[in-house]
Amino acid sequence: MRLGCCPIARDKLAEARFFLGRLKRSKERQPALRFYASAAVSAARSVTFVLQTELRERRGVQFENWWKEIKSTLSEQLSAFELVRDSRNMAHKQGNHLFRPVLKRTFPDGPVSELRIRLSPISNGSLADVSFEVRPEREHGLIPLTDEALAGKDRDEIDAIMQNKLEIMMDLGRKLEDSDTMLKTNPPLYEPVEGYEDLPFGEIVSRLDGYLRGLDSVLDAADATFGLDLPGVTPAA
Fold first, then answer.
1. Which residues, at least 6 apart from 100, have a Cβ–Cβ distance to it below 8 Å?
2. What is the C-alpha R_g of the chain?
3. pLDDT digit string (tens) for 186-214?
4. Contact, 198 vs 204, CB < 8 A?
5. At a CB cut-off of 8 Å and minimum separation 6, what does 118 contact?
6. Taking Cα atoms as reference points, which of 39, 174, 180, 11 lies closest to residue 99?
7. Hey, which end of the chain has fewer CB within 10 Å, N or C?
């Protein structure tokens, strides 16, 4: 039988799994979704920190050499490493804005081809900001009305830009009025951390699951290197 070397890190990993399980059962309800997401990524990100604390003092240079090798491939071993790291940093330093709901819809007609509405997860789902895409042939309507941008254009060109800009804004207004319908008929996507791609809830949970499986492998490698063999001892059935 081999005795594991890092029971405290194992316990922290179990904590992460506990909160991820609660996150899966949150049924995407706020604030449970945010609270469990924050707890899960915080515990998950702490596992390797706890592992270092457990082994560095006891194993000294042997651990340092082993950790240097493991650390160089950590982001490869742990799928979603950046997602967990950035989520944890966001929640700890800027407040819990994790899993921001996003409504996206494409339109077959009108100047606006796609609408993206980001909701605030904290303020009872209130609208946070709106972004949109226009059809390629309408992009000149997005030219800013500045002297620099309009330099060299004649009156007809400027009038065409103004008309196109007006049509885009009117079309955007009509489609924004329908945002309640979007909320009722389109399952929201989620922006796990600001700047990340919008993902379905199940995909984010799957990536977190993969991260925890990677942590299992890291701790197994630590046990294989630093665990204690107990000759003649058979694990209980």
1. 118, 119, 120, 121, 128, 190, 191, 194
2. 25
3. 778 888 887 788 889 999 999 999 999 99
4. no
5. 100, 101, 102, 127, 128, 129, 130, 131, 191
6. 39
7. C
